[in-house]
Recover the amino acids of this structure.
């Protein structure tokens, strides 16, 4: 359905990636929220009530801004894990502040990869590839290992894998001589200081009920203790819908 919708916009003459996503976003949002409808969000650990549709757009932009904030002059590679149709990747690209690197969308579904390729083809300036990727067997065979800095990020995808293997961290660290990783995942209950806080307990129970991830933070802490990585930032509740808000974790490979 997503692929057909995107193709339909292109066949009707749409060639701008940002406008393509704006049209697609309006389509699927219309089935969830009315214009002017409010929803509960968590921002910096505080519950706030915001316009639902605007809050979603803000989240995408906040992720892109955080990713771009980690870019450097020697950044050569940008990789999104569990990318779907690549909306977050294209949002980063669309900011216009990081055009030199090669972008890679890593996704398990063939339709998601196909859709991302079609969208990327609309802008010949973009160096882009989409690859099959499975968190349960993490491999990056299709990504050329380049000298310099690589940025890897994920948003609401690790949550879908109950137990992540430490091999994921190993494979990510192989993507560049220097690697910075950002995760925006609803695992804040794993790293919250007060594990007994009412909201943290409710979020943990929901995630366990949904079979969402329950071990990634422990893996990161283990690898940091072993000297493989450095956790630079860990914010349990960054910004997102209150029912499933993502944390913000930034870590770096230690050379």
């Amino acid at each position: 359905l997503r692929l057909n919708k995107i193709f339909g916009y292109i066949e009707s003459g749409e060639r701008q990636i940002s406008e393509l996503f704006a049209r697609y976003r309006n389509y699927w949002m219309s089935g969830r929220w009315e214009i002017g409808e409010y929803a509960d969000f968590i921002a910096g650990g505080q519950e706030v009530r915001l316009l639902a549709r605007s809050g979603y757009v803000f989240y995408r932009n906040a992720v892109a801004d955080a990713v771009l904030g980690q870019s450097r002059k020697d950044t050569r590679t940008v990789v999104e894990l569990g990318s779907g149709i690549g909306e977050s990747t294209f949002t980063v690209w669309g900011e216009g502040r990081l055009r030199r690197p090669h972008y890679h969308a890593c996704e398990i579904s063939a339709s998601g990869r196909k859709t991302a390729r079609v969208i990327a083809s609309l802008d010949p300036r973009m160096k882009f590839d989409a690859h099959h990727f499975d968190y349960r067997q993490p491999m990056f065979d299709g990504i050329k290992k380049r000298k310099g800095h690589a940025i890897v990020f994920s948003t609401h995808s690790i949550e879908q894998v109950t137990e992540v293997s430490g091999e994921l961290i190993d494979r990510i660290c192989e993507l560049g001589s220097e690697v910075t990783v950002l995760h925006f995942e609803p695992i804040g209950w794993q790293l919250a200081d007060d594990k007994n806080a009412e909201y943290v307990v409710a979020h943990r129970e929901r995630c366990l009920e949904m079979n969402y991830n329950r071990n990634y933070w422990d893996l990161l802490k283990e690898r940091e203790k072993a000297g493989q990585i450095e956790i630079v930032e860990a914010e349990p509740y960054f910004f997102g819908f209150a029912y499933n808000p993502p944390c913000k974790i930034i870590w770096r490979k230690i050379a």
Q: What stands out?
A: The chain is about 35% helix and 25% strand. The two ends are 43 Å apart (CA to CA). The chain has a mean pLDDT of 95. The longest strand covers residues 146-155.
